[in-house]
Amino acid sequence: MTNNYMIWIGQQDCNCPGSYSISPKIMLAIDGFLVLPLLVCRQDEKTNYHHILSLSWAPLGVLAISLVLFFGLINLPLGFATSIKNHENVPVQIVGGLDSFSLSTIKNLPVTIGANQTKAIEIDITFSGTNGSQDRKFHLYSDYKYQPIIFGNVCYTITGKN
Q1: Domain end (from 71, 106, 131)
Q2: Do 82 and 151 share a structural domain?
Q3: What was the pLDDT predicted at 10?
Q4: Number of folded domains that form the chain
Q5: Is residue 61 domain-shared with residue 97, that is, in the same domain?
Q6: What is the pTM of this model?
Q7: pLDDT at 45
Q8: Looking at beta carbons, which pairs linking 100-106 to residues 24 or more positions away fall under 8 Å?
Q9: Distance between CA atoms of 20 and 12, rounded to whole angstroms?
Q10: pLDDT score recorded for residue 81
Q11: Are residues 84 and 32 part of one domain?
């Protein structure tokens, strides 16, 4: 059938009186007619349907995430933990804090640090600014009368597109 098809559209020499000029609409209809049985009569793969679907969508998801991150359509918060050590013999409670970040969260507050113990406090920040090294300050409030404010600093580098 392929040889007759190729002869009919004029792509093979068959010693015929000449080639025919067929419109693209008719060629599309013929191609659709030939592909339709392949789609209708294909094997049933219902047993692995979800697995096959997830594998076929994985590259598209990777591409979408890469484009979103490259063009900066979203800002992903990144967290870090800072350790605070209590050198006193009395427990100290960290009750809150302020920072110079533009969209940040200080988690796990209030937290009590026992005598001579160390605790980690998580801080989530969304990086902002231009490319290069950045320096941001934060401070935490405590209920300890001799040091009511604990100062901190975080440094990071932004690379890539803003």
Answers
A1: 71
A2: yes
A3: 57
A4: 2
A5: no
A6: 0.43
A7: 60
A8: 100/136, 100/137, 100/138, 101/125, 101/126, 101/128, 101/136, 101/138, 102/126, 102/128, 103/75, 103/77, 103/128, 104/77, 104/138, 105/77, 106/138, 106/140
A9: 12
A10: 77
A11: no
* Domain end residue (candidates: 71, 91, 114): 71
Place of tokens 């507050």: 109
Distances (CA, A) of 142 to 58, 90, 94: 48, 13, 4
Which domain covers residue 30, as residue numbers? 2-71
Structure tokens at 24: 């693209």
Are 89 and 29 within one domain? Answer: no
Give yes or no: residues 58 and 7 share one domain: yes
108 φψ region: left (φ > 0), alpha (ψ -120 to 50), beta (else) = left
* Mean pLDDT by groups of 10 residues along the chain of 162 residues: 59 55 78 78 62 65 72 61 83 75 63 87 69 76 83 74 54
Closest of 110, 119, 46, 125 to residue 83, by C-alpha:
119
